[in-house]
């Protein structure tokens, strides 16, 4: 008879196991996140913090930015990993931090089209006072370009997984072509299977 | 003893309700290939039709089911062949995240054990579908084509890198078999150094083993992608891996020689299939038929007391294996442009996967045989001959083999490649039974991927411009 009872328990277990409830709560945006091994917010934040720190404390850059705020253009970061990562989000964070450091200024290539449309409107629509309209041909050209790439090496066997990310960022002088600075941030994450879970 | 017979009935009702409940799988009492027949039927043209929509809707209802992975693989492919790349992408995304979760899922999962337990009383179809290694590779392969369909080359490159990782994981899992192949080659004195310089680093001995779990069609697709995007190193590696598996392929030898030449090496290979300055490259991916489904064999096993317990096993009926057709391409003047070469037999990958599951399957089936026998005995004790009859009927009805696998996948993957002059080109593609015409707009120096799917004897054409 125990045998039959076992089946009843197992079947009831099956039905219960598949039905669970949700729990939603707010968390700290800078807290360490380890939900999965994939690229996450902690990785993004640590990459941005390390590279910005590196760049603004690099002696020649400190010297150069002591008297002026060079204009920089940010190119796309090439994603060479095995994950779909929004690299623009990483460069956005880096750009914001650099801007807030007060040492650099940026031209935003992602807004060029919108800027152009707005200026066209100011010039051609007849609705804007021509003496107060922003004139064409007055924008400042970038002196430096910030670019780089992100790559990863993933290893996996039946009970563990290891992910290594390398983010490289370079600052090049557009006129001379000289690379003024390069920084690198490495991240390694490992995951191991636990023996038992619910 | 009345309450005990109620208990027996209670178990039956629970087992049935578990199958009817959304939490369980739909394949418990309706063999999966029967369900998949309706999915396969709607893949006959790439124009939207009400039949396609109704299949897609019914598949979408399975998004939360235990077999969600399986149904989303089918749905993703149907959506993709209808050029609904965004929908297909979200279907495959679900499959990919399930696969990723499995990588680090704990060895013993109690919720999973419950399903395993209930499978003991019903059949293996009660265990949630986990997907096979070759299906994981095809998932990323399809996902890459979704990104190509949306002209997102970076997205496609991520998927091609991911698929390379999965193929490597499969190789590492089968290391022992590859080692055995070497040993055999040594024992039979096969010379491993007969290939010329260009093909150095190649391993045809290992290749003969690799063909049973690695997918050369995917290697070819990623190699062609890397070549088109200028990453010659990656292209060379993937062409070589495809060649290891298909060591007789003239096309692949030519591809390897061409990449070596592009990288600045000298080559003695006579024809490199290089486009001239005002030509574009066309790479054709031909997917023929449908991968064979598992069939079922029922083996009656005698019990101690003279009765029989029937146990069902899945197997592939290799004696009735479908024959694949090559595809021929011709220009508007009926000049032959090329004939496709088979680089993967998906059926062979599926057979290998089933073979690897046999030990675990045998263990589960013996447990099930014992459980069902005990169940029958208990039923007889409590319900007399009527109870025994009911239990035997239940045992026979509930016993069915696990025949689930991704069935809208093609039977074979074939490739060909040719160069065309810039401008519009009318190309006809034909198999022995059917043909189709396509107008291409060739751009010099660019690569065009044409994917042709032969399903239900009609050819579906998709053009991806890189």
Instruction: Tell me about the largest β-sheet of chain B.
Output: 5 strands, mixed
Strand order, main sheet of chain B: write it out.
7-8-2-11-12
CATH architecture of chain A: 3-Layer(aba) Sandwich
Helical fraction of chain A equals 25-40%
Our estimate of the beta-strand percent of chain A is: 25-35%
Structure description:
- The complex is a heterodimer of chains A (198) and B (466).
- With 198 residues, chain A is α/β, with parallel strands linked by helices.
- Chain A has one domain: Rossmann fold.
- Chain A has helices at 2-17, 41-57, 59-64, 87-100, 112-124, and strands at 71-80, 105-107, 144-156, 160-173, 179-192, 196-197.
- In chain A, α2 (41-57) packs across α4 (87-100).
- Chain A is extended, with a radius of gyration of 26 Å.
- With 466 residues, chain B is of the alpha+beta class.
- Chain B folds into two domains: 2-174 and 275-465, no CATH class; 186-212 and 215-274, no CATH class.
- Chain B has helices at residues 2-20, 32-41, 50-60, 68-81, 85-103, 110-121, 133-149, 153-173, 175-187, 204-210, 216-228, 232-245, 250-262, 346-398; strands at residues 108-109, 279-288, 295-302, 308-315, 328-330, 336-339, 341-345, 412-421, 423-430, 435-442, 447-455, 458-465.
- In chain B, the strands form three sheets. Chain B has a five-stranded mixed β-sheet with strand order 7-8-2-11-12. In chain B, strands 6-5-9-10 form a four-stranded antiparallel β-sheet, with no helix packed on it.
- Chain B is elongated.
- Chain B starts with a helix and ends with a strand.
- Residues 16-24 of chain B have low confidence and may be disordered.
- The interface between A and B is large, with 40 and 44 residues.
